[in-house]
Amino acid sequence: MALMVSACGPKQLALPGDPIGKAATCAVVSAAAARQKSPDVTGDLGFDDQTRILHYAMLAASDGGAFSAKRASEVVSRMGEVEADVTGGKWQALVNPCDQAYPQVKKTAGIELPKARFDAALGCYSLGDFLVKTVQTREPRAQETLSELMKMRRDLDGTVGSGLRARGASEYEKTLALKQKALGKMVKLGAPAETVKACTSRFA
Predict the structure, then answer these.
(1) How far apart are CA 177 and CA 2, in angstroms?
(2) Rounded Cα gap, residues 181 and 65, in angstroms
(3) 194: closest CA among 124, 115, 102?
(4) 121, CA 20 to 30 Å: which among 94, 114, 139, 195?
(5) Count of C-beta atoms within a 10 Å radius of residue 23
(6) Is the pLDDT of residue 1 over 70?
(7) Is 176 helix (H, G, I), strand (E, B) or coil?
């Protein structure tokens, strides 16, 4: 991570040039901002905050179009490596640069799902499935949201399964490739917390 050391006090920080480091740094900044905004919250962050932090990894993982679980894991690992330097420095100065680098994270309105029903169903299924498996929280409202996503996923099982088979994807590798391609598109629509609201509204 690029650091500019000042004579005294917290370090001046700059966003790294590499995509993994940049996403990891902005995710740590987002987490620090969420904790600062709610200093009394000592437990798990809410669903919106957690998915906002996770969104940076999801975007970096979708640089090539289809979502890459390997790249997402690399971002999460890098977060642990840079956390101390970022939170120990002047991380507040990186809020605006991160917003500019990742405008999708701040997009909470005007989110439009794919118009074709199957494309929307596959995208919502893939996004919901990823968040259910990734977001770890005991925060009550977040658990309610995750329960809604699990129900949506169950409700879409038949539609997604038949649609994938109709497209010649009956083997695991082919179905995974189509789901990752759909997820790569979904993460670019806007904030995941708002995108899944659009999903549950359409497929409730």
Answers:
(1) 35
(2) 7
(3) 124
(4) 139
(5) 30
(6) no
(7) helix
